[in-house]
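The material for today's practical consists of a large collection of protein records. An example says more than a description, so a record of this kind follows:
***
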Amino acid sequence: MKSNLKKYLLSGVMLGAAALTLAACGSGSDDKKASGSSDKTDVTLWITTDSKKFYTKVLEAFEKENPDINVKVVETEDAKAQENVKKDPSSAADVFALPHDQLGQLVDSGVIQEIPEKYADEIKSDQSETALVGATYKDKVYAFPYGIESQVLYYNKKMLSEDQVSSYENITKNATFGANLKAVDAYKIGPLFMSVGDKLFGDTGEDVKGTDWNNPAGVSVLQWIADQKDNSGFVNVGDDYISQFENEKIAAFESGPWDKEKAIEAVGEDNLGIAVYPKMTIGGNEVQQKAFLGVKLYAVNQAPADGDSKKIAADYKLASYLSSEAVQEAQFKDETRNIIPSNTTIQEADYVTNDELANAVVTMSGSDYSVVMPKIPEMTNFWTASAAVLSDTYNGKIKPDQYQAKLDQLVKDISGDK
């Protein structure tokens, strides 16, 4: 089936048929039923906002291969997938997109179930190891990966060389690095603890009592943060980081693929460099700075099927298709999507390895550079509690002799202990 999918996905015929498919996937679904499609199995798909045009194209191929399935596409905010599905699972989508860190709460609440073995085996065979981790909870596979996401280093080539950006110390000695330490975003700064070998919810990210930040390495992270206030090469930036980059007040910053176009506008495509995270010295030891890795998933909600095995089978078939090699190739090449693939074959393709951003993200997805963001429900404790400690350290509200006690309390807060 793979070759047929690629033929449909990548041919010019698809573009001409897009409008017809949009009608079929949208409000025209009632017309299809009226014209004799009552034997078809209807599957509702929730996708992220502003992506319907892309899905219109790729579903053309799916419906050609599966004429007995009718897909209705609805745009939603995938960051709110958990909230929207849990409100009323029986009236929610059959298949929906979500970030992997919501997986644990959806599984624990009974909304989604372990996927059939045949699909789990395909994921284990075709997807990257870290993508599989993102789709797995308590040793069972619950969802279908279709992309990965990590922050990278953006830098101005006029101010820094490729060699210089391999080290944080060289960046700040030769130019300037911008980040927000006054009002920390724990997504961006929290992984410093994993950079020094500490764990967040243990080795697997699923051990509630497994956070060990209250050790000497963790104390050294707080000291490093406090030291940045006196680092002439560090510039605290807020939401103005792109304008600071444009004005050359900062020569480098760390962000995700979503900022690539803004960075290009700021300094010009020829001047924009993209690299993996630099090494840095914390507590006297050189370590590789790490980031959180995000995995984009499709999950199946069986509640609307109400036990209808034919409909459930159609749901899984659609979810599998949307995470397939062919669709991942198409979504990477589509300028409106440009999602970094989780499929290992696509990751190794020339058009990915020759793309500076994609190559950096794929490299960052390795365990040397990133940690798959934990997906257990207790992650909700992590964001606010850790951000407050990190911000207060930089702002001088927490003194060095308080670091240990603050980390002891932070570990308790993260685990949910009172």
About this structure: Confidence is low (pLDDT under 50) at residues 1-37. The CA atoms of residues 106 and 282 lie 37 Å apart. The longest strand covers residues 291-300. The two ends are 54 Å apart (CA to CA).
